[in-house]
Amino acid sequence: MQSAKELAQIVRELTRGHNAWFRDSIPLIASENVMSPLAREVMNSDLHNRYAEGLPGKRYYQGNIFVDQIETLCENLAKEVFRCKFADVRSTSGTVSNLAVLMAVAKPRDKMTTVALSDGGHISHAKIGATGLRGVRTYSYPFDEKNMNIDVQGAKRLIREVKPKVALFGQSVYLFPTPLDEIKEVFAEVNCTTWYDAAHVMGLIAGGRFQDPLRQGIDVVSGSTHKTLPGPQHGMIISDLGKESLETSLRRGVFPGVTSNHHLHSVAALAVTLAEAKEFGEAYADQTVRNAKALGEALHERDMDVLCEHLGFTESHTIVVDVERYHGGAKVARALEEANIILNKNLLPWDSDPVKPHGVRIGSQELTRLGMKEAQMVEIAELIARVVVKEEPPANVKPDVVALKRQFTKLHYCFFEGEEAYDYPTYDGNLS
Questions:
Q1: Which of 31, 128, 150, 427 is the most buried (most CB within 10 A)?
Q2: Which phi and psi (to 5°) does residue 237 adopt?
Q3: Reduced to 3 states, what is the DSSP secondary structure of residue 163?
Q4: What would the mean pLDDT of 25-53 be, rounded to a whole number?
Q5: Structural domain of 90
Q6: What single string gives the DSSP state of each residue in 238-275?
Q7: Is 129 within the bounds of a domain?
Q8: Who's near 34: CB < 8 A, 6+ residues apart?
């Protein structure tokens, strides 16, 4: 039997193995990113060991003198970056943010319109996720499969027929801005609260590159903070508070609704990330979208069925590829992983089996963070095509993946630009 010390050493070595693997891998998961050196520094601090409940100046614990200042600064940065009147930075993830909003704006048995899972909606919007746990009844917008977006006339008709308490927009497969300007006329007609889950595109919104939901009829925006906004795994809620008492409801939804302590080290890292978004966000968002478009084009040229070629493939960080004729999303994702190319299988709107979907989802945001540009997207497309289209053994492609990635391990669009992305503190020697 292994001792406790030996088990701890195993965990250490597995973690180091993971770090080394990603240093030599092409990361294409659309929901991931890497924090800046300064964000990592404040994350790895004594804040991690401490506790706070409530709001700055109104805590249930002592010891929050500096915490209050950090959290207030973080909220002010969020309001500045997103040009809004209200921000709550205490949610510990995007899904927890969604739960908090649900607590604030919907009661059990209320009706909510949303995007179906098969059309790219997030699991927390579905009956089997946070929405279902809250007891909210959901109705899915008609979806335009060709254009990978909500069908405008169908959505307007659905909202008028259902008269939902809440109209929710936002997706996990988010290629194009939601047509809010075309739909928003019906919001006032049915007097619904409007909500936008910006988890995937928060950084693009901050950079002015995607859309501006708070200026397009949306009451409250929620999201995670570690995708196109390259911060800690945390959550955030923002609003212009057009509805009476919404601020009180949202605050209570977060605490005591769905959080107790809200991970103070993550709030500090988020504050740094928002400061960096203020400084570098526009350039980062622009290059992220440029890279996604370039990767989509390059894969299309290599006989891969990238969705929405007629629309330029994407206006976000994400592209989606139908790989049915290459044995499906699950097999393609596994084969690419063997070559150190990391992406995920994904449902397409016409799929019925989430375990064996026909698609894969690809994101450009982390590679952009590492300094890659359009030329490297072409190289990556060729590496993917060698595995998927030409069916080369992944082991033969892997050395070329590693060689490319080792040229791009430094962070960009942040303070202390040029620092290594994969350097973490280590302690030599055996455990004692």
A1: 150
A2: -130, 135
A3: coil
A4: 97
A5: 39-274
A6: EE---STTHHHHHHHIIIIII-SS--HHHHHHHHHHHH
A7: yes
A8: 230, 366, 369, 370, 411, 421
How confident is the prediction for the chain on average, in pLDDT? 95
Instruction: Decide if pLDDT at 386 tops 70.
Output: yes
Distance CA 43, CA 49 (A): 11
Kindly give, in sequence order, each residue whose CB lies less than 8 Å from that of residue 202, ignoring residues fewer than 6 positions away. 223, 224, 225, 227, 228, 229, 236
Please give the share of the chain, as a percent, with pLDDT higher than 90.
Answer: 89
Q: How confident is the model at residue 432 (pLDDT cuts 50, 70, 90)?
A: low
Higher pLDDT, 368 or 121: 368
Q: Are strands 341-342 and 26-27 parallel, antiparallel or unpaired?
A: parallel
Q: Report if pTM > 0.85.
A: yes
Find residue 224's DSSP bridge partners. Answer: 235
Could you tell me if 204 and 317 are in contact, meaning their C-beta atoms sit under 8 angstroms apart? yes
Whether 310 is covered by a domain: the verdict is no
- Distance between CA atoms of residues 143 and 154, nearest Å: 8
**Whether 210 contacts 201, CB under 8 Å:** yes
Domain count, the chain: 1
Could you tell me the two tokens for 31?
């929901």
| CA gap 384, 335 in Å, rounded | 10
Q: Closest Cα partner for 239 from 87, 53, 401, 96? A: 87
Backbone dihedral region for residue 308 (phi beyond 0: left; psi -120 to 50: alpha; all else: beta): left
Please tell me the predicted confidence (pLDDT) of residue 134. 85
Residue with tokens 């500045």: 80
Q: Is the pLDDT of residue 201 over 80?
A: yes
CATH code: domain of residue 63: 3.40.640.10
Which residues are CB-contacts of 64 (< 8 A; sequence separation ≥ 6)?
Answer: 50, 52, 56
Whether residue 238 is contained in a domain is answered as yes
Q: According to the model, what pLDDT value does residue 394 have?
A: 98
